[in-house]
C-alpha cells in the first residue's frame, strides 16, 4: 500500500466554494458495498435508505471562529493565525502562515479592536501567542475572528462579505452544541430539522457524541507508506446516555450508522466491553486505513474527500479501495461537488 494509491485528479471546478442553497438539496451518492452498486439521489431522500432502523451517531461539536488576520506592529505585514489549542484564557497555540519568518516578541494588531497579540515562541510547527486587551480572548472571537474554512475555500473579506457572514451559519451543523472545533464535521452539514424529524419518524434512533475537530483530522500524510502516519489526538466525549444506546444497539444487533469520519473515529476508539455507565471522555488519535477491521460502525455517511488524505483512507478501509475509486470516478463524471461544502455519500 502506497500513498500514491489514494491520489486522483479533481477538476478545480468540482471543489465546492459555497454550500447548496438549502442544506438538504445536496446530492447523495448511495454506495452499496454488498451489491457493489452506486445510486444517485438527493440528501432530502436520506430517510428512504434507513428502513433497517439504525442507531445514527452524530458529532455535536460546535465550530468557533478561530481564524485571525493580524498585522505585524513593526512592519505592517499581514499574518494569518489559526487558533488550535487554548493553553490558558489568553494563551493559545496557533498555526501561522509565515511562521519561519517570525521572531520571538513580534507583536500583532487586529483591525477595529483593542486586542493585541505577541508571538512568544515556536512549538513544533505551531506558534504560541499571548493576547492582551480582553479578560479572555475567546469571548471576543465572534467579532475578531472568522470561521476557520479550509484553504481550498477562497474568501476575500472585502469582496466576499456576504459569503463570509453566511459561513457563520452554514459551516455549522444544525445540532451543534459543544464549542471547541476548528473545522466542521462536514457530513452533518446536510441535515435540516425536517430531515432529522423524518429520520426518527422512519424508526431510526439518534445519538450524539462530541469530537472537537482539530488539526489531526485535516493534517496531510507526509510519508509514502500511509501505515507510518501518526494522527494528532483530538478530544472526545461520549455521554452516559449515548454509551447506553451503543451498548443496547450492539446487544440487539442494531446497525450503527456513523455520521461522518469524526463520529466513526470516536466510535472505533472505544471498547463497549468495558463498562462506562457515566460515559467516557479523553483524547483519541485513532487512525483508520485499509486493512482495519471495524468494531462498531456498520454504515457511514460522509462527504467526498481530498486525495491522499486520512479521510479518504478511512472510507477506503470501510468500503474497499477499488469500490471507492470507482465511486469517486463516477462522482467526477456526474459532476458531484467535493470537500467540505460538497455533496454526500452514504455507504451501506
The fold-level CATH name of the largest domain is QueA-like
Determine the strand fraction and express it as a percent band: 25-35%
Secondary-structure element order, N to C: EEEEEEEEEEHHEHEHEHEHEEHHE
In total, the number of domains comes to: 2
**End-to-end Cα distance:** 25 Å
Average pLDDT, rounded to a whole number, is 96
Task: Give the gist of this structure.
The chain has helices at 141-144, 161-170, 193-201, 215-218, 240-252, 261-269, 310-319, 321-333, and strands at residues 27-32, 37-42, 55-59, 61-63, 67-72, 78-88, 91-96, 107-109, 116-123, 126-132, 178-181, 205-211, 234-239, 256-259, 279-284, 299-303, 344-347.
Amino acid at each position: 500500500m502506497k500513498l500514491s494509491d489514494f491520489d486522483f485528479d479533481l477538476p478545480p471546478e468540482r471543489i465546492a466554494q459555497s454550500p447548496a442553497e438549502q442544506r438538504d438539496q445536496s446530492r447523495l451518492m448511495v454506495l452499496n458495498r454488498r451489491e457493489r452498486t452506486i445510486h444517485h439521489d438527493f440528501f432530502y431522500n436520506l430517510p428512504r435508505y434507513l428502513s433497517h432502523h439504525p442507531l445514527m451517531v452524530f458529532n455535536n461539536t460546535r465550530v468557533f471562529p478561530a481564524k485571525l488576520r493580524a498585522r505585524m506592529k513593526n512592519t505592517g505585514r499581514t499574518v494569518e493565525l489559526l487558533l488550535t489549542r487554548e493553553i490558558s484564557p489568553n494563551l493559545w497555540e496557533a498555526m501561522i502562515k509565515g511562521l519561519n519568518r517570525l521572531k520571538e516578541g513580534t507583536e500583532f494588531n487586529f483591525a477595529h479592536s483593542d486586542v493585541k497579540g505577541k508571538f512568544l515562541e515556536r512549538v513544533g510547527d505551531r506558534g504560541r501567542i499571548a493576547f492582551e486587551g480582553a479578560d479572555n480572548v475567546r469571548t471576543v472571537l465572534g467579532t475578531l475572528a472568522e470561521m476557520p474554512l479550509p484553504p481550498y475555500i477562497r474568501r476575500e473579506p472585502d469582496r466576499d462579505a456576504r459569503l463570509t457572514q453566511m459561513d457563520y451559519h452554514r459551516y455549522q451543523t444544525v445540532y451543534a452544541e459543544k464549542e471547541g472545533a476548528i473545522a466542521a464535521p462536514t457530513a452533518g452539514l446536510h441535515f435540516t430539522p425536517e430531515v432529522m424529524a423524518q429520520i426518527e419518524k422512519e424508526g431510526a434512533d439518534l445519538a450524539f457524541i462530541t469530537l472537537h475537530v482539530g488539526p489531526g483530522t485535516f493534517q496531510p500524510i507526509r510519508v509514502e507508506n500511509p501505515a507510518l502516519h501518526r494522527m494528532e489526538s483530538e478530544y472526545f466525549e461520549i455521554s452516559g446516555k449515548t454509551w447506553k444506546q451503543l451498548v443496547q444497539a450492539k446487544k440487539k444487533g442494531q446497525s450503527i450508522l456513523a455520521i461522518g469520519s469524526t463520529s466513526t473515529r470516536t466510535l472505533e476508539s472505544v471498547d463497549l466491553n468495558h463498562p462506562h455507565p457515566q460515559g467516557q471522555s479523553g483524547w483519541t488519535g485513532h487512525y483508520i486505513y485499509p486493512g482495519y477491521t471495524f468494531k462498531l460502525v456498520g454504515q457511514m455517511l460522509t462527504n467526498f474527500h481530498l486525495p491522499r488524505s486520512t479521510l479518504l483512507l478511512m472510507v477506503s478501509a470501510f468500503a474497499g479501495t477499488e469500490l471507492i475509486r470507482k465511486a469517486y470516478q463516477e462522482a467526477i463524471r456526474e459532476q458531484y461537488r467535493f470537500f467540505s461544502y460538497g455533496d454526500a455519500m452514504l455507504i451501506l
